Amino acid sequence: MAFRGSPLLVILLMLVAIALSAEAKVRYYRFHIAYQYMSPDCFQKLTVTINGQSPGPDIVAEQGDTVVVEVNNGLLNESTAIHWHGIRQIGTPWSDGTEGVTQCPIAPGETFVYKFVVDRAGTYIYHAHYGMQKSAGLYGMIKVAVPEGAVEPFSYDDDRSIIVNDWWHKSTYEQAAGLSSIPFVFVGEPQSLLINGRGRFNCSSLPSTTEVCNLTNPGCSPSVFTVVPGKTYRFRIACITSLSSLNFGFEGHNMTVVEADGHYVKPFVVENLNLYSGETYSVIVKADQDPSRNYWASINVVARKPSTATGTAILNYYPNPPSKLPPTTPPAGPQWDDTIVRFNQSTAIRAHPDHVVPPPTTSDRTILLLNTQNTVDGHTRWALNNVSSTLPHIPYLIALTNNMKDVFDSKPPPESYDYRSYDIQSIPSNPNATSSSSIYRLDFDSTVDVILQNANTLNPNNSETHPWHLHGHDFWVLGYGMGKFDPSVDVASFNLVDPIQKNTVPLHPYGWTALRFRADNPGVWAFHCHIESHFFMGMGVVFEEGVEKVGSLPDAIMGCGESKRLRRP
Amino acid sequence: MAFRGSPLLVILLMLVAIALSAEAKVRYYRFHIAYQYMSPDCFQKLTVTINGQSPGPDIVAEQGDTVVVEVNNGLLNESTAIHWHGIRQIGTPWSDGTEGVTQCPIAPGETFVYKFVVDRAGTYIYHAHYGMQKSAGLYGMIKVAVPEGAVEPFSYDDDRSIIVNDWWHKSTYEQAAGLSSIPFVFVGEPQSLLINGRGRFNCSSLPSTTEVCNLTNPGCSPSVFTVVPGKTYRFRIACITSLSSLNFGFEGHNMTVVEADGHYVKPFVVENLNLYSGETYSVIVKADQDPSRNYWASINVVARKPSTATGTAILNYYPNPPSKLPPTTPPAGPQWDDTIVRFNQSTAIRAHPDHVVPPPTTSDRTILLLNTQNTVDGHTRWALNNVSSTLPHIPYLIALTNNMKDVFDSKPPPESYDYRSYDIQSIPSNPNATSSSSIYRLDFDSTVDVILQNANTLNPNNSETHPWHLHGHDFWVLGYGMGKFDPSVDVASFNLVDPIQKNTVPLHPYGWTALRFRADNPGVWAFHCHIESHFFMGMGVVFEEGVEKVGSLPDAIMGCGESKRLRRP
């Protein structure tokens, strides 16, 4: 390469180039979404893939980078939208990818460009946020590294990524049709559990031998994590199940939990780790066991009575062949119904002492949300304070910034429920709920507490586990309790010292979970149970804050219903 | 009811009301499109339904009426569009319902209003024209009566309607994924044939007894046509198969063919009638057989080697119980591969002597279309003159009336092929074709001949039957031939005396079919093979004529891609 011009100018230009390279980068991805036959658990099924894969490609960036994802919808008849789970979308609320809340769906054949800054290092997820497409295979991992020179409060030699999922053989259309039916038809427990998109269905359980189930299909050979004896590894673990809470463990290896949802954790050691849909963790594992063999990595269903086989992968001690199966039985995990074990893990997760971000000491508003299973017009639904969520076809973000009346119910949803008299241990005495598209409008920059209160479902002696996920924010986890939250007593127990910040948190059976967040991110944000079918059946609310501060919306998010008119010529 | 005002005014108003009621009416329908489990052939399958039914409700109107259909898309993630097959949409080209050609698809949750005049009595069909939704169950019948006082050239005591279809147990998603795969994966022959949405799958052929296949399900009890001995009936018959050509017959009863695609036929008597996808007929049947028993109505696959059981319904002689099965075997129809029989039926269909509409004696342009199976970039496709059709995501009608460049390929597609040297009896020597979105632009009000030329597929000694359907027009059927069309010889054989007008016509194996139409309907019109998978794989062309005469397009057809911008605020 020959330079023209003065040597000084050349040197100056080179210095500028070096300076820029240390600056934030733009990470560019192209996602082509299409149906494709895959056999993730050896059973052939039509899968929604990204660039021919499920899970899709990892998005890898460094804190402060801008990520640009050009999503081309190659589905035949279906629209889509992708949510960047855990990314707060500060300044880009239109890139949150939540159909009905922040954007119109991306029509077949169209391309939509998501562009957002990953402002905090950590482990995140992306997944479809439209219909039940997440469950059909549209998901993947986001890994954001610390900026060059920054030091994390733990060390490791190398890192590995794990994304776990549950999997059904029935299509999401069939599942959704069942959920909408009267009487409600549930698809049942998953056929298999997947680690990095691979599981193993017992083909011989099928009524006849069939070419659609083939245990020798290389597409369902187990995932392998190769480690070098004596080295230390960071495993980034993301849980993107549609239904199941899972327990993850490496046979014979303890794990030190160091990160949760992008925040540093006060390290604690576990033999196995409970994972709720939408959560991410990093754990440190030392390859310090007998190096002459391989070990199992395993996932087991907890919090629901399992009828799905343990999901397995191979922890491969180099130089053993990856295909060499461990001589043992994969860990079975804890008792599925030992709520105390899971409760205790939840309360063990605190902010790392060097990374505590203290919460505001008081809140301006408390929203108490009773989680119940209900019926609306004969349909089985989930409701918060007896209101079951329905999303409008014109997204709130568009409706609110364009003063479109009648798009959604403007009556505010209830702030609380009759907590003095409601019996959370019993089937609702009146199971009827109402459907509404109403939203909570929060004062900008105010501090909001949300208390999630669990209760009995429509079945006797049953209360389910709900992983709640908040868009656009991290919240402080102020506490968990068993039984009914009593404002006059339980507020005093809040941890204001070292609460972890998270974006997803479990609500345990018959228990409560208390969160606090600052309503400081202009936009409209979903807060919902991350179980695909529960959200589909109305288990969510929507928060608006500072929507008047949201600048001009990109044309590209418009395009449904009357919002077509808003696009500028 | 009390009238105020002068008695004279009241009488005058009443007279006006009576006069108006004799005028054209508006027929208003509401279609709610949704997935629902149905068991049309006793096997439970997720079906696209209209108001909970498949087939959907009959649309019934009188010639000159305006039909308004408010289509609400209740599918979860999928868009839709409905075509009114056989309705020419004179003055309303935007209501043709052809996604990619005349409108953007109707997004989930949205409502689109089709409004059109049914300007000619006859039997027509409606069906989805998007993806493969027609095959998933979205179809029904349109019956347009003659105006009050008008006399048809045949008489009958009562009428009955029959719509026949083929049915698969695999979802259309699975079918489409197979068609798009390399190598091409074909779903195979249908599992059953349906008469008015009811068939009978042999559940015992399944590998195990399963609750999803239940022969006692009332949803798959056979369709019944009750007749009174001695009376004469008009049977309106519509064929909406996705693949199969069918042969229809009533056991022991001849049929007199009197209408085809809305045009009166010079009556001819048949024992059974070949039906191609997209065709409609009326036949006259006298209930003149032994009245002590019932008879079979049956459909059998022709033109492809059948592996699907005969589809049956009951011709019920009153007062025999409808459930009383005939003591006989249902008619098996003619030999499936007897092309001559089907060719002869095609040539027998002429215009009724009192209803001949003479065609223009010459044409201004002849387009000769070689029908071949090809490969494009490794994909199996169908092509016309080696061009395989792809539809743009912004419909032609919108692009052409708004001068949107780059939406489609503006290079004209080929007018002909090398008919002197091409060997139609052999596999294409070069099977490679190209894909294109190019269209034929026709001079307004000109007369156009189209010669469809069949040929060998990619398999040796195989030429398939293709039912070709033209939107926006009826064409005159000038002739059929076996072998290769020779312009210097075969034009002389054209029937210019009494050709029938139709909108759908078969192209027989290794044969040709000649059509003539006037390009006098301003708009953009698809012309394609009506086999769902063939059209999906590129077997179609598009005609534009007088698009500059199309008035202002309704906003509602906009909404995809850049056409969002065209909606008026």
TrEMBL record, chains A, B:
One of its GO terms (cellular component) is extracellular region. It catalyses: 4 L-ascorbate + O2 = 4 monodehydro-L-ascorbate radical + 2 H2O. Its cofactor is Cu cation. It comes from Iris pallida (Sweet iris). This is L-ascorbate oxidase. One of its GO terms (molecular function) is L-ascorbate oxidase activity. Its EC number is 1.10.3.3. It is found in: Secreted. Its main location: secreted.
